[in-house]
Amino acid sequence: MNKSTMQNLRRNARSMAFGSPYAEGLLCFLCFAVVIYALFRLHQPIQEIIAGHDSAYHYLRIDATAENLRNGTLFSGVDYLFLNGAGYASSAAYPDFFLLIPACLRLLGVGIGTTMSVYLLLCDCATYLTMFLCGRACTKSAVGGTIAAVAYTLCQYRMDNIFIRLALGEVQALIFWPLILCGLYDLIFEDFRKPYVLGIGFVGMLLSHVISTVFAFALSVLLAVLFFYRLLRQPKKLLKLLLTAVAVLAVTAFYWIPLLELKGSCDLGLDHPAFYASNYPLEFYNVFRDLYTGADGPSLGIVLFLLCLLRVFLTKRSPAYQAFPMQCASDRSASVRTAADVFALLGVFFAVFTTKLVPWKKLAKYLDFMQFPWRLFGPVSALLVLAGAIYLFYLLSFTKAKKLGLVAAVAAFFLCFLIHMDRLTITRLGVYQDDYFTSQADPTFSIGMSEYLPMAARNDGDAMRARTDVLTLDDTITCSFERNANELHFTTPEGDAKTAEVPYIWYKGYEAVDETGAELPVTMSDHGFVSVELPGGVHEITVTHHATPVRVACNVGSLLAAVALLGLAVLHRFRKPPKPCVLVQDRSSTEAAESVQQPEKQEEQADAPQEAQASSENQSKEEPTC
């Protein structure tokens, strides 16, 4: 075998190994595996508790959801593991739908710390997957999706949310930002053939973090205003968008309608926040810091902005400008480059919006609800990552080195990730026993700033804490009781006591009956607890909490809506394509046509041998003889 043959074989082997689509898929999968493994190593030891700012509350939420599953009080809206059994409307105000996953792990006997670590790893995988799908939808390539997924999963703000703040709601919300951006991209720049992507994004966002849902709605409105005339010329898109919005509201009605009912039932701490966003705007340079500080909060770092600076290499004078071949079928003037430019500009705008360059005091009336301006870093991270990934992908496509560029980009992201995590101090609290929250009272008072307490109970925290395990008659006489989750029994002594303050925080849905089944009036006491009017004399009183009729109706309605949408999706997936229409002529007309065509065919068949013989003779005359 000569030297040239060996070189050809090596060249063919190299092209088969690195030029096939299987190699591209394998490389993308390896990037996913490396990212998840790196995050898994960060969670070691997985059985220990992460000492984040909100750790105690979120660990308690998981165990409270598990107790609700065990006691059958999941849909009541009150968690009875909180406040030493007095109950707290955490699940009614802070959605716990996705906490059913770690709650089931707790019921299976998995430890407290291990449950949280496993759930965070699942969130890592889901975040990677959603951004990969979004990036692939925009670039029409798995390489573009991988670039976006790696950069987003390892971005600085997300790492700070996990290992410093342990803001579980925002960690969950970061899963759905890519789906919302993908849905908005499909709505504005393509044909909106997949409205369910936008719908799933908003459903997941609303069931994860309410403040992030407000951000997502504001971003959608802003994009709709910017491209108003384009959307106005396409009424089918508007109709799909309207139906998607109705579906989202119907599926999530079991959460947002009871939340409105809760807010309207009494004066809650939600209406009196402890933090106002107008008091915490950032210095401009703090947006680009690489280290989390307690005084200034989290930051974005410089990597995402550098990624978007690749846009300067895609100007009209640049030869790489031709690397944007994909035009929208609905509007030829729009392109992926336009979408990336819009996302990048919006990301930079919202990043600057968190600083003191914006008059926050004048906008306090409208923006104080977000508590901290840097909460905007969630959508900013998604916008900048998606725009930068699009720029980088098309630059790599122009250089015809997508795989090598992908490896280099992932290595660069990993380097920045490792530098940030090396400077970050992750504190752990050791291993908690399985009965950590059920065997002692103190940890059950980890409720943050008590936003979901009635103000009557929130005003005096020490008095509230003392009344969670005491039943008093006329605010002076103590009485023994038996309490089991949402049901409490006590017997009134002889005398003419008029009221009994029961050790339950008051929320709508409490009922009291005596031994005969007669209902007793229930109100809120001056201390924010359940107060029962007594009939006088010795009676056996039972106090229970049930889901309100509004909550029951919303639960049923959301379930029916989800089943109906699922059924429509299955029918759409497995329906048979329509058969092509075939024009059927009359038999008489077809016979007449055949009778007319038959003599013509016979004449053609008769002339064919003569023409063939003539052509063969001419050919023989023209051919030279040897």
Radius of gyration: 33 Å
Shape: elongated
- Overall residue-averaged pLDDT value: 86
What oligomerization state is this entry in? single chain
Strand content: 5-15%
Intertermini distance: 42 Å
Total DSSP E strands: 10
The stretches of 5 or more residues where confidence is low (pLDDT under 50) are: 13-18, 326-334, 582-590, 599-604, 611-626
Main sheet characteristics: 5 strands, antiparallel
| Total of DSSP H or I helical runs spanning 4+ residues | 23
**Helices and strands: which structural class?**
alpha+beta
Helix content: 55-70%
Largest sheet: spatial strand order:
2-1-5-9-8
Structure commentary:
The strands form two sheets. Strands 2-1-5-9-8 form a five-stranded antiparallel beta sheet, with no helix packed on it. α2 runs parallel beside α19 and α8 (156-165) runs antiparallel to α9 (168-189). It is of the alpha+beta class and 626 residues long. It contains 23 helices and ten strands. The radius of gyration is 33 Å and the shape is elongated.
